Structures are given as C-alpha cells and as structure tokens.
UniProtKB/TrEMBL annotation:
Similarity remark: Belongs to the complex I NDUFA2 subunit family.
Organism: Thlaspi arvense (Field penny-cress)
Domain Ribosomal protein/NADH dehydrogenase as annotated: residue spans: 20-93
Superkingdom per UniProt: Eukaryota
CC annotations in GO: mitochondrial inner membrane
Name this polypeptide is given: Ribosomal protein/NADH dehydrogenase domain-containing protein
Record key words, sorted: Disulfide bond, Electron transport, Membrane, Mitochondrion, Mitochondrion inner membrane, Respiratory chain, Transport
Compartments (UniProt record): Mitochondrion inner membrane
Entries under InterPro entries matching the protein: NADH_Ub_cplx-1_asu_su-2, Ribosomal_mL43/mS25/NADH_DH, Thioredoxin-like_sf
Membrane topology: Peripheral membrane protein
Pfam families per the UniProt record, alphabetical: L51_S25_CI-B8 (PF05047)
Gene3D superfamilies cross-referenced by the UniProt entry: Glutaredoxin (3.40.30.10)
Function: Accessory subunit of the mitochondrial membrane respiratory chain NADH dehydrogenase (Complex I), that is believed not to be involved in catalysis. Complex I functions in the transfer of electrons from NADH to the respiratory chain. The immediate electron acceptor for the enzyme is believed to be ubiquinone.
Length: 98
C-alpha cells in the first residue's frame, strides 16, 4: 500500500463528508476511525478534512492541481471499498493532467 504515502504528492486536499448518526454514513465513520491516524502520519502536512453534517449523504472529494475535483459517493460502500475508492482517486492524479 505504498500509495498511502503518495497522497500528498497526488492530491491537494481530501474532504470526507458524513453524517454523525445515519446508517448510510456508518462505513464512512468506520473508515475515518480506522484509517485517519495512519494516513495522517504518512502525510503529516496534508489537509484531510472531515466534515460532519446531519442528514448528508457520505461523499469523498479529492482536489487536484488547477482546482480539478473528483467526487465519490460513499453511500452503500463498505470500509474496504472506501479505501479502494481513495486509492483510485490517488492513482487517478495522472489522468487529470492530460
């Protein structure tokens, strides 16, 4: 999982939007609880933004160079699927520079 250490080289910012209590956001909350500390330690100066809002659908937004953003809807995804989606956003960095 070497891509985890490349997050700060590939992205400018990562935002995770979730609800504090809804079942739809349960996997997103689990993802944050299990992975935030490790991801932050590998990318200490990178802005990982966790936004909690009542009733919101869980989403993950990646911001790249030149203000390009990509969104992944996390509703219905498991924690491993969310990790795979993050990996896809990190590796998609090269595709945004075309």
């Amino acid at each position: 999982m070497a891509w985890r250490g490349n997050i700060s080289r590939s992205l400018k910012e990562l935002r995770i939007l979730l609800c504090q209590s809804s079942p739809a956001s349960a996997s997103a909350r689990t993802f944050v609880e299990k992975n935030y500390k490790d991801l932050k330690s590998l990318n200490p100066k990178f802005p990982f933004l966790i936004r909690e809002c009542s009733g919101i659908q869980p989403q993950m937004w990646a911001r790249y160079d030149m203000g390009v953003e990509r969104c992944v809807n996390l509703d219905g995804m498991s924690e491993p699927q969310i990790l795979k989606a993050l990996e896809g956003l990190v590796k998609a960095q090269g595709a945004t520079k075309a």
